[in-house]
WD repeat and FYVE domain-containing protein 1 (Copsychus sechellarum), 410 residues
Amino acid sequence: MAAEIHSRPQSRRPVLLSKVEGHQDAVSAALLIPKEDGVITAGEDRTIRVWLKRDSGQYWPSIYHTMASPCSAMAYHHDSRRIFVGQDNGAIMEFHISEDFNKMNFVKTYPAHQNRVSAIIFCLASEWLISTGHDKCISWMCTKSGSMLGRHYFTSWASCLQYDHETQHAFVGDYSGQITLLKLEQNTCSVITTLKGHEGSITSLWWDPVQRLLFSGASDHSIIMWDIGGRKGRTLLLQGHHDKVQAICYIQLTRQLVSCSADGGIAVWNMDISREEAPQWLESDSCQKCEQPFFWNIKQMWDTKTIGLRQHHCRKCGQAVCGKCSTKRSSYPIMGFEFQVRVCDSCFESIKDEDRTSLATFHEGKHNISHMSMDISRGLMVTCGSDRIVKIWDMTPVVGCSLATGFSSR
């Protein structure tokens, strides 16, 4: 059912502490129980399970509950031990877990959506249950009465959600690649702005209320940092994953961003340095270096009796250039490019060797990751995915462990 992994700590690498197996289908969500050696999982096999670490060092299920529909999302509030499970049929079910984590009592069902629930957030202060779904909407319901307070519809599936509890602002990512910022009221809401920058569907969001930064991961393999507090819009583009970014977590104490991708990639980004914003791509009818016409510039092609060239863009300066003027490739981590990208020849000459030093560390999770959650106070991370395996990691070798960072020894 569960197997303990004995792994020697290696310098600057996540340490795999345990591998938990038992689900019969993809694991949709996994959450570490704060201050406990336990994890809660929800799966497409319609089960929700609470696993506790036994004296043997292995994790065994203390609660095994079967739902009416596949489990698609989950939220857990530790102080009140209330758990909310979103399902494929659109309903969200609330349970209360006993103090010893050996019993789970049903509280109520919320008819939140008409289709698969994609994300859930519980706000204790307002007693709101906020959720998004594949019925293209965000809904917020009263947890006291179980009644619907409000709904707002989008043009695409709502795929992920973050919420600022103090200001009642919700961030909703959708399958069109757009992020909508909403101000929620008791029975209504207003759209503040929409953020557009990704070329693929939004798969994950993380809101840091301290620095007022929003991070978004997408199926275009990239992460964008949005400066919401400074009202600057997109400020940083991070490219280092080879597959869609499925989960992100910003550690405010150490100024590090942890991200996971579908191919098992785990990246830890150093955000405690002054980075450069990637330039907007410039448009031109001819190469901005050699002035040769691009292939759609019929007039200049005719006047100069030349064949038009294909347009490219330098990732460092943003200029529109032809292939002959951008023959080089280079990484440029300070701008978020951990891979080699196209740069014009003059920009390539300006990049020093030290400018190519990576500002992130990359690790192999060795399983499909569709969801990740961290217990930042203990430096622990849990990952799960379509391979039905749940992995618990010690991230302190990578993200730091000291009193200054807030991590405590376990």
Summary: Residues 1-10, 402-410 have pLDDT under 50 and may be disordered. The CA atoms of residues 332 and 353 lie 10 Å apart. The two ends are 25 Å apart (CA to CA). The chain has two domains: 15-278+358-399, 296-355.
